[in-house]
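Schema walkthrough. Field components (list of strings):
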Amino acid sequence: MEKATLQELLESRLKDIFSIEIAEASPQELFLALANVVKSCYANDWSQTRKNLLVEQQKQAYYFSIEFLPGKLLKSNLLNLGLLDTAEELFEELSFSLDEVAEVEKDMALGNGGLGRLASCFMDSLASLGLPGNGNGIRYNYGLFKQKFVDGHQVELPDDWLRAGNVWEVRKESKAVDIQYGGEVYLIEDENGRLRPERHGGYVWRAVPYDTGMVGYQNDMINTLRLWSVEVPAAEEANYATIESRRSLEDLTAVLYPDDSNERGKKTRLMQEYFFVSAGIQSIVRYYLKLNHPLTMMSEKIAIHINDTHPALCVSELMRLLLDDHDLPWEQAWAITVKVMSYTNHTIMAEALEKWPIDLFKEVIPRNYQIIEEIDRRYLEEYAEVHEAALLNRTRIIINGQVHMAHLAIIGSHSVNGVAKLHSDLLKSVVLHDFYLIFPERFNNKTNGIAQRRWMQLANQPLSKVLDTTIGKSWRHNPQDLQLLKNYQEDPTVLQRLADAKLTNKQALAEYIQQTTGIEVDPTAIFDVQIKRLHAYKRQLLNVMHILKLYFDLKDEPQAPIHPRVFIFGAKAAPSYHYAKAIIKVINEVANLINHDPTINDKLKVVFLENYNVTLAERIIPAADVSEQISLASKEASGTSNMKLMLNGAVTIATLDGANIEIRDAIGDENIAIFGLTEEEVYAYYAQQNYSAYAFYEEDPVLQRVVNAFIDGTIPNIEREGREVFDSLLKYNDEYFLLKDFKSYCDAQYRVDLAYKDQQRWQAISLMNIANAGKFSADYTVQNYADDIWQIEPLYAHVKEPNSASL
Ligand code: GL4
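Field assembly_structure (string):
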């Protein structure tokens, strides 16, 4: 599209909506008008994609996820439609900044962290590969809370993202479905001797879908992200006359649970899970019936993916529809279900493997509960002759009065995958070992990936331009072509250009830091970044301990040859996660102490940016020199910020955990700083039960000084939090082995410092990171899901060349 055409469209939208000229428009008005223009640019392709899918009857995947974390969509839609450069030029000509306009958009923050962001990266890749793949989730009125710091404490404010409306979504009233909750279900024999459920009591709520187009990268493919919102069914208006009754209904899709690995058995959460599952499955079956295909062949047209355990009810809900509404015999319904379903596990943290009390299940979803009981009974029966009773009793779905969601998902799926090689191996050998004995053929690995378009092309335009001029533009379609950069490892001109791009990004971040926190940071310092949810296992505290060590080194010797460093944190803690909130307070107070201490000559700065989200990540990641991936080995299933930071040329300091191992394998030991216990060593400690935090503390005076600092008044204002930290390390024997890993972490940090001082070497390492990051594009990950699990093919394969995505 020409610039002039875009301008005309924009002008006419501004007239239509606001009756104003461009010159009078505010950023808000420009945003809305431009977003509407963008929507109209893909409207035709969206309906065409749907029509073609129906005509071609191609198999489609449905990604069920209780979280999606897309961030802002304006620039990514412009990029994918091939309009970004045109829009930028136009806005410049009109003396506006596109960035300022884009900034108006509220982040769509319907997820906690990595899991939800992964779902959105997959949506981007599915469309960009031309693959028919749709998202199915919940349209929360309030996304993940907005984080503020008050006196260094985290305070949570509601994220009212819908207040000004959401320009991208389309309400599809005609596609609404009813969701049944509660009541009692009796099984009554019909004239053919078949048991039929008869429901007494209970209530029905309405699920209304809001669809958002997922725009493919310059390929005319528009998939759909369908998010469900609760409403009062028309026939029930009279029953919801009071404000209270309405409120309890509206609560259902009001808020996202702000906890990313620890479910707490809340009834509303279970109702949410059933809500989007039942709505999604009903709408899929309705669509499938339009194809006039026998139900027994459903797996030829439909693949349903269970993203973590939250949508595990997909199994029992599809069974319910096939049995109750379509009269299929149990065996047929079960065969269909297992072929259609697949499941991804995202964590080894035991507390995240959801379990629900059966009483709650019976109360909320009685028919699903009956079906789950029957699945469970048949499971025991079917495998009784092959496996020991003890094994079956450990893997059955209902154990000790609780429904085990992971068990339901595994038994009801044909594929179970982990999200990095190590994680998938641990699933087989430890976490889900019992299931591996029973269903070895179901287990596989799909290492996570990231949307290179958002995390490089959009977030890092300075670097993208250097890449274009150095290796050409093919990397934009085929991320593996970033490998071409390897040829320039010793080219001083290219290394300098990379360094310049990084400096530009660091200057921009320094300005943002100045504006939002008042802290002055020097862009020539090392920007050392740890951005992720606050969790004990991710060990933000280990980072703090190293910072304190450097601080004491500088206090002892102000001229110590340490290259200046800015430690940047971004992290939200679940509101109920007391210990994580204590760590936030400690980091903020350490920052206060160090940033205001004139004796260390500004050599260290600590910056904790508020409200870490996708948009803030897009600011921080391009400016990072060092990427902190320091979880205790075996605990981080994969991680994805590790991939984003690597792609942007940050050098990783890491334990051999999650996808860090694959990053190390891709770039070689010389281009990453590895430290700490390995997963085997961690498990050896568990087996021998001989870890003694106190022993490490006692033998290392440096460590002693650092740990004591939490309680000896060195850091003001942390009497309570400092004590909690101190106790977690010594009194409770340091669950995540920080004291053991401290020394090796500090050594690795020292190597990082040395490497940075040799700028030529540093830039070459950074270059190797960028050059080898293509492998971690979600395009390849999604292609693997498509080939191995979903068996779906590109829609326009016969019309257009798909983006090349084979390794
Ligand atoms: C997570 C893992 O903790 C994280 O390592 C992984 O990268 C992500 C996506 O697979 O899933 N699991 C949960 S729960 N939250 C996550 O972010």
